[in-house]
Amino acid sequence: MKPAYIVRAFLSTLCILSVYCADDLTVVDNFEVKPGGEKLEHRKEWDGFICKFTYQCQGGTKENWVMSISRNSEKRKFVCTIERPDGMSYLFFQHFEASIEGADAVEIEVYGPHGKDLKSEEYTVDLMNRKVTEGSKFGSQLDKIVIYALIPKQEL
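Structure tokens predicted for Myeloid-derived growth factor (156 residues):
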């Protein structure tokens, strides 16, 4: 049985997605996060929207992670989610950067163990450049990143 915190985190994300991307469509891409200290990248593109995760980590063995992109039917609101679906990651992240292209980032959330928000000093959000990176006091634990994005309406 999954711990209650995983279920709560999943349900809260589902609620946010349902409000943000009503009538949404989602593409999911499974990938492996590999330790070894080498800087690696995973990216997914859909309808001109790109979600990218760059990382460097140490630890035991590779882990299965998921990158998903949800968008509403108007193709204006997007959500990029990068997460370890099996719960807490056991890897120690030395570096991470999650970024998007093709839309403006409006909000970014970063979670650590047990579905808890990372402290603000553990990461740096740069909405202008549509990315989030580790901060000066990053504790090396990362389980999930969510980037909410919007393509502005074009004025006629």
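Residues 1-22 have pLDDT under 50 and may be disordered.
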